Structure of Diaminopimelate decarboxylase:
Amino acid sequence: MYLHGTSQINSKGHLEIGGVDTMDITKEYGTPVFVYDVELIRRRARGFKKAFETEGMQYQVAYASKAFSCIAMVQLADELGLSLDVVSGGEMLTAKRAGFPMERVHLHGNNKSLEEIQMALDLDVGCFVVDNFHELDMLKEQTEKTKKSPHVLIRTTPGIEAHTHEYISTGQEDSKFGFDLTSGQADEAIKRLKDHPYLQLKGIHCHIGSQIFDTNGFSMAIEKLFSQIIRWKEELDFEPEVLNAGGGFGIRYVEGDEPLLPEEYVTSLIHTVKEQSAMHGLKIPEIWIEPGRAMTGDAGTTLYKIGSQKNIPGVRRYAAVDGGMTDNIRPALYHAEYEGVLANRANDKAEDTFAIAGKCCESGDMLIWDLPLPEIAEDDVLAVFCTGAYGYAMANNYNRFSRPPVVFAENGSVQLVIKKESYEDLLRNDLPLRSAERV
């Protein structure tokens, strides 16, 4: 059994997270429930930051809030001295309500609406990561109206494919994201931005994918960008002050996943940037990164109650839980794999292999296909590890199931940070059919 962060098995044989017995959590908040190990999030933030500081670099570590966003998480990011990567009006408003310094907010997105651009300018968002010419034209028009002067990075597609699932690989040329380098789109964007009276072009951005376990892809992308920077300096008199290498740093979900430490990813990035800068006689740019999954992914655990079972002799044993693809759609969407344990009997020896089914009316609602467990009983509690990124963030109300609560556990105490959705919450925006239209 692989335990993440502060997780351990206590004298009762129960799983503990952040010094809190998970059975006490389920007693108070029910199931399903997301539990976040706050100390593990703190460790990850310290690891990323320390690597930059050890190398004496100017930097920003921006938490990619799409992984998991709520007011408490954004406040924790602020407490940890992080910047914030947002991609929507909802994420911007969350940052504002959390009291996050908006000058440390970076707005991403491949199809920013006019309303989102106006909102970002009204909130004094610090940096726009510009993705395409349509957005660039809207941003120019709005800054000329408002006289606001945000910083701008140009998102580029460097043509580097990370070793990852095809649906989450975003750095190759054939991508919905960013300005292509090969065709000259990035050159044209620089020309349009460089001498604009309000938009302050600070640098370039790239993101080569997700769940990356080595540094080769990052190094290749940086080298590709520096080959362009040399030319941009000569031809366009543009040398970026900021190089944003994106995120994508992997975590361990299951046996066989072998991610690096945060410090190892960052140190390799820094060394490649320093080498390329020295080789070409360029200033060392400030480096930004955007960890999301690497900050919260393995800090999250979902607790479920086991319900029905089904045994097909010689084929498979099924055990159903009281959640599923409504709180974790990644297995259905990406064939993502997870590990788990009976949280109330964590020391019991595994006796058989079970397929863990969700309760949605979908044959594809399967959380784990082959999980070794002891003989299970109704009301046993299953802990599924590493659900802290893109679990609650992608939760949905399919079959009109309500979304579960979220708690933070740290130093022996637990805090509710997102309440369980009620049935009334589900119906809040529904409107009845007018009687005249029903005749």
Observations:
- The first strand starts at residue 8 and ends at 9.
- DSSP finds 13 helices and 21 strands in the chain.
